[in-house]
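Before a colleague's protein record goes any further, I have to sign it off. What it holds is a sequence and that sequence's fold in token form. Would you go through it and say whether the fold makes sense for this chain? The record follows directly below this note.
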Amino acid sequence: MVHDTIAAISTAVGEGGIAIIRVSGPQAISGIDPIFKSKISLKDADTHTVHYGHIIDPSSGEKVEEVLVTLMRGPRSFTAEDVVEINAHGGVIAVKKVLDVVLQQDGIRTAEPGEFTKRAFLNGRIDLMQAEAVIDLIRSKSDRAFSVARKQAEGALSKRIKALRQTVIELLAHIEVNIDYPEHDVEEMTSAYIREQCQSAIAEIDKLLKTANEGKILREGIMTAIVGRPNVGKSSLMNMLTQENKAIVTDIPGTTRDVIEQFVTLNGIPLRLLDTAGIRETSDVVERIGVERSKDALQDADLILFVLNYNEPLGEEDRQLLEQLKDRSVIVIINKMDLPARLDLEEVKRFVSKDSIVKMSVLQEQGLDALESTISEMFFEGQLEANDLTYVSNVRHISLLKRARQSLTDAIEATHAGIPIDVIQIDARSAWESLGEILGDEAGDSLIDQIFSQFCLGK
């Protein structure tokens, strides 16, 4: 339990209808009560009630702001501590004046980034996995990503990890008994039990890891590079997908000189779009730099949208690039289908499968549904189930699940090799600790601090 009291603005800075100053800790109520003038004292008010009044400057007695104050007594609050939330008029000056008065009270200090959520974790209200899901809720770029994060924040994934840990702790208990009472140990039965428990845990881990690719995509988005020769319609495609004129479009080749990044959602699939400079040999120094950056973007991309012009034959640069991209996730977009055909589609099919070719007319906004469908089939095994969004989406969680799986696999192999049971215990305990690190039970202070430092101030 933390013993000091913290305060911070919990809403975005700037103009708005309402701004909220959150105060949490043992002195939240006693610290705010003297500066809040209302018909009732906060000390006498019931929990989970809202009160109208004014924040008063204690040095002058003047009214600072007209407010509504929400009172939540611990442990029935987000932090499991006493919490007071001051709802003031939105605006930089009004909120700053209220916060300044709050921070003048003895025992109340400015909160660090993520400290409210960190206190919820330290006070046992949520585990570390649920705390990390709060970040994902804030950063969600699609409805599906939000739904996945919400279920994680509610503890759906935590329950499955805890069940896994229970399986492993039962295994450890069995091993401990056999170590303490070797005279009662039947080696074949013990080895069979260890293998059975480990295989059961591995099967559950595999179910979770099967969702990892989709979950990671929903959380972070698919890094998508739009590439092709100059003037094939890359920037026009970017503008069509974003529904904004982010990229300059002209008939002059080489207009795009740098990589332009934008986040979009197509049919629930988040894409981090990179519109790149047209790839070609050029003597223009600035354009050449842009081309090199385009090639760098190609290396980092999870998905490449390679745009070709239906009204132009395949060039040598196109063939070279298609050859280089044979082992990558590529969708070839045949743009300008509204113009006369000069492109040999059969030649294109020699580089990519017909299922990876999408015919479009960006100018007439045709072919977007086909593109969405192709991306979905490429990155997701069937449709994402709307009712079962228990996905593993965090890279840290994925790594620890893989580590736990390896430890359990090592334990199984050890039984076949006839290794002593006290050595097998080390592998089982390693798996148990890896799973505990996901929940925060085995996490060190430096990891916890690093995770919560990613939060915004006031959350």
